[in-house]
Every structure is written in structure tokens, then in C-alpha cells.
Amino acid sequence: MPRGRYSLHDPHDHTPLGEEHFHCAPGPSGWRYVSQLTTPSGDHAGSVDLALDELGRPIRLELHAAGWQVRGAAIDGVTWVRTDPTGTDASEGNVRAHAFTGTSPAFLVATARLLGLAPGAPATRVRLVAFTDPVLAPRTVDQSWALVKSEAHTTDNGPLTVDEYQVGALDTGEQHTVHIAGDVVLAAPGIELEDLETPPSVFP
Fold first, then answer.
1. C-alpha dihedral over 61, 64, 65, 67, to 10 degrees?
2. pLDDT, tens only, 150-185
């Protein structure tokens, strides 16, 4: 069960946004990721709880941030309920999309898992519902994902396969690179892996 800490920053001006303390593991039904978010000063800022089935589809998502809460799952596309900090106003949403995304590194692993790309294959288009900070506002985004290459690196715990993805935003044309090993993001825009207590899990 990988356990560690990511630092999060603004990908454009590198302003620190805080840290994400996580643990994750494959299970009999798929994969689960749980994390707690803190501000740069160390205060609690929210949480992420994401469970995928064996095909990489989100069977349960629960996000908390600034008093807002989102619960979602892959039902008729993706469906979610967003509740305000008072707990009195809940709005439901549904979009014909493949999965969810957001600032957490969990969503990069989840999208890569869902697409199951082969190295060198043409880019695949994917529609995602992004929940944007700080109030978890939903926004539909279209991305292209391509697995550029997979490389095995020698480590103290045996070989570690690192996948390099090229991810593009179809609305702006902006492209960036994401490096993932198993169920851990090694590097991505706005994300740095600061600490990892146990090696990444290897998906079957």
C-alpha cells in the first residue's frame, strides 16, 4: 500500500497551494485512494476518497473542500451531488463523460487506468468532469491522452516501470507531460512527489 506526500503548487506561477497526504492500494474490486489536504500553513483544507472498479471507472468519489462536498459515481455517464457548506443546498449534476478529474494526483492515475493505453498508440480523447478549487465547481473538459513510452528503472526494490503520458487540453491546445509509476504520480504540472514510504503498487 503506497503511502506518501505530494506538494501542490500553481502550475503557472508556482505559488504553493499545500500538501496532499495519501495512501492507496489495489483491491479485489479495483483501486482506492484516500488523502487529506493541508494548506501551506499546515491547516486542514479538505479530503479525497476515490474508488475505481477493475476497468478504472469511478464507482465512488467523495471530495471535501472549504466546507463544500461532492459525492459522485459513474452512473449514466457521471453523476454527482454537490452540497454547500451549510448542508441545506444540494445540487445534482449529470454529464455524458467518462470519469472525474481535479487537482488531486489521484485523478491522473485514475484516467491513465481507465484508458489503458499502449505505448506509441494514437492519442485518445476523453471527456471528464473537473471539480475546481476552492468550491468544487463542476466543469466539463475534453482532453487527449497518449502514452509516449514506458521505461523500466532499476531501484532498491526491483525494477520500476515509469509511464510517460502526453496530455493535451482540447479547448486550448495546451500540452503537458505526466509521469506515473504504478499508482503513484512521480511528476506532473503543479504536482511534486515529496515522500513515498512504500513502492508503488503494480496493477495486474
1. 140
2. 999 888 777 889 999 999 999 999 999 999 999 999
Number of helices (H), then strands (E), belonging to the chain: the values are: 1, 15
Q: What distances in angstroms separate CA 62 from CA 13, 45, 175, 197, one per listed residue? A: 29, 14, 28, 25
* The Cα angle at residue 202 between residues 100 and 181, in degrees rounded to 5: 65
Bridge partners for 48 per DSSP: 35, 63
Residue 90 forms part of a structural domain:
yes
> Please, are residues 12 and 194 in contact by the beta-carbon 8 Å criterion?
no
Quick: pLDDT tens for 59-106. 999 999 999 999 999 999 999 999 999 888 899 999 999 999 999 999
Count: domains in the chain: 1
Spatial distance between the Cα atoms of 150 and 165, rounded to a whole number of angstroms: 9
Range of the domain at 11: 3-198
Q: Is 64 helix (H, G, I), strand (E, B) or coil?
A: strand
CA distances from 6 to 23, 160, 185, 186, 195 (A): 11, 19, 9, 9, 7
- The grid cell for 123 is 492519442
